[in-house]
Design brief:
The chain is of the alpha/beta class and about 350 residues long. The chain is built from 12 helices and 10 strands. The relative contact order is 0.13.
Length: about 350
């Protein structure tokens, strides 16, 4: 989680995203497919990640988390906005320049069975980025080192993905991401497809690798308990916008946005006495259609604090004196332990 002591302190963020927007067109049916609308999956998101830290990006399905991850890597092209990595703008890079930059930016996907080619051996999968980028040296030895680094044996390189468990397959995906010694790894729901008993082992591996290699993580997830375990800072998303951000203790111990409070109230507490005392926040209705979001605050249709100003003005992400930025007209820190809703 924390920056290793021997790494130099840098003032410039490793990754800086500013006013990122991504629209997806809605096409009509029929022979002539016209654009009849737009889905704004990401709407003006700004975030930064410092070298050696982990930023947890959380929110329910459809909030735009994975879209941000893919826009950062330019796996999909942003509609507008800026993505700067090591101070360099990525938007204007040519395909060749982007390929060189991607040595330092890698991704681990949610479903390892879908992201690993079933026709290739594990050795071929892990060595593929080394061959694409024409890495010199003994590739076979490097593959063996990477397998041992993620807790597998070198001889496992001769097997195929279907011969491994889900947790082992995800370790293979992590080994592939580490092959080129990147600075930034984007983890897109890396443990959500795994059994709970396996998740802790993968999370502990990621933390160990971060300490050993000085890695920087963008950790995308919908499970707040997982994000709390691994993240230094947290950004909470709702319908394409970041609604609250801060350090782990700030967001988890004093959540100020109603949506963050609702998410945290659904996370079980292992202490029965505390669990009994804690109030639950049950949100009414479903998330709005991103093709036609509500006016003003996007969360107002499900918020118990909503007033007229919420229908007219979209709140900015600002620190209004509570200690960390919140996009809400009525931010109120809440420990969720016994106070009444409203």
């Amino acid at each position: 989680m924390s920056n290793p002591a021997d790494l130099p302190v840098e003032t410039t963020p490793l990754l800086e995203v500013t006013d990122l927007v991504k629209d997806f067109p809605i096409r009509s049916k029929g022979a002539i497919r016209r654009t009849v609308g737009m889905v704004q999956a990401v709407n003006g998101v700004s975030l930064h990640i410092n070298r050696g830290e982990t930023l947890g990006l959380v929110g329910e399905s459809g909030s735009g988390k994975s879209t941000i991850a893919r826009c950062i890597l330019r796996l999909i092209e942003p509609t507008s906005g800026s993505v700067r990595f090591k101070g360099q703008e990525l938007a204007g890079l040519s395909r060749r320049q982007l390929q060189a930059m991607r040595r330092n930016m890698q991704i681990v996907y949610q479903d390892p069975m879908a992201s690993l080619d079933p026709r290739m051996t594990v050795s071929a999968i892990i060595s593929e980025p080394l061959r694409i980028h024409r890495t010199t040296g003994d590739i076979g030895a490097r593959v063996g080192e990477l397998l041992e680094l993620v807790g597998l044996r070198p001889e496992h390189g001769n097997r195929y993905p279907h011969e491994f468990s889900g947790g082992q397959r995800q370790r293979i995906g992590i080994a592939r991401a580490l092959a080129l010694a990147p600075d930034l790894i984007i983890l897109d729901e890396p443990v959500s497809a795994l059994d709970v008993s396996i998740q802790a082992g993968v999370l502990n591996l990621l933390e160990d690798l971060q300490r050993q290699l000085g890695l920087t993580y963008l950790f995308v997830a919908h499970d707040l308990s997982v994000v709390r375990h691994i993240s230094d800072r947290v950004a909470v998303m709702y319908l394409g916008r970041i609604v609250e951000t801060g350090t782990g203790p700030e967001v988890y111990e004093t959540p100020a946005h109603p949506y963050t409070q609702a998410l945290l109230s659904a996370v079980p507490i292992p202490d029965p006495k505390l669990e009994k005392r804690r109030r639950r926040i049950v949100l009414e209705g479903d998330a709005p259609n991103p093709a036609s979001p509500p006016s003003g605050c996007r969360f107002r249709t499900r918020c118990w604090k909503a007033e007229l100003i919420c229908t007219e003005y979209d709140p900015e992400l600002l620190d209004l004196g509570i200690g960390h930025p919140v996009a809400c007209h009525f931010p109120t820190p809440d420990d969720l332990m016994g106070s009444e809703q409203g």
